[in-house]
Write a sequence for this structure.
């Protein structure tokens, strides 16, 4: 279970369904660890923009199978069958993000929430641990956070976990104040 790509774009529903089906099969077969390793290897391959372009391109189905065949030779049988089914159904685009979708599904099943914390300046390990603990208690989940700096925040932090954003940054507070001012009714003067 990695915290990789916690802030990436939303996954499409088709990829999420395919990954969920594989997760359920692997869970029932007691092969989650093996299939997870296979998914990590597929994910590592798909990080290359050249590989992604190849799978989205006009290469033949046999060429695409051969390209992935070198990586998948020692995959668990469930993963091999899954990859073959993807090719048989002409759903090669699912391979692009299936590793991330599988990882998300596994984290959700384990009660783990993956997120990212942004701050104007780098956070120390103790600060990050404190934030992680506080968020875990608030969300009633195990939280794994990665960190990135965002100088636009000026001060404070912004935390994004799943579809939730908790914004304690100066920029966030200024934006909130601006919205309140724009929504406020002005008093009507009497003449």
């Amino acid at each position: 279970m990695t915290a990789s790509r916690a802030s990436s774009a939303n996954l499409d529903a088709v990829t999420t369904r395919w990954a969920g089906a594989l997760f359920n099969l692997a869970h029932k077969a007691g092969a989650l660890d093996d299939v997870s390793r296979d998914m990590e290897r597929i994910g590592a391959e798909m990080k290359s923009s050249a590989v992604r372009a190849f799978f989205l391109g006009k290469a033949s189905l046999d060429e695409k199978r051969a390209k992935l065949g070198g990586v998948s030779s020692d995959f668990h049988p469930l993963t091999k069958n899954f990859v073959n089914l993807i090719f048989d159904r002409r759903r090669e685009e699912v391979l692009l993000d299936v590793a991330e979708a599988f990882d998300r599904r596994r984290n959700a099943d384990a009660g783990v929430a993956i997120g990212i914390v942004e701050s104007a300046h780098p956070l120390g390990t103790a600060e990050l641990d404190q934030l992680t603990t506080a968020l875990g208690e608030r969300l009633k989940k195990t939280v794994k956070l990665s960190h990135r700096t965002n100088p636009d925040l000026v001060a404070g932090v912004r935390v994004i976990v799943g579809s939730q954003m908790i914004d304690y940054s100066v920029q966030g507070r200024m934006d909130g104040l601006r919205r309140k001012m724009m929504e406020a009714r002005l008093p009507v003067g009497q003449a």
Remarks:
- The first strand starts at residue 112 and ends at 119.
- The radius of gyration is 22 Å.
- The longest helix spans residues 13-29.
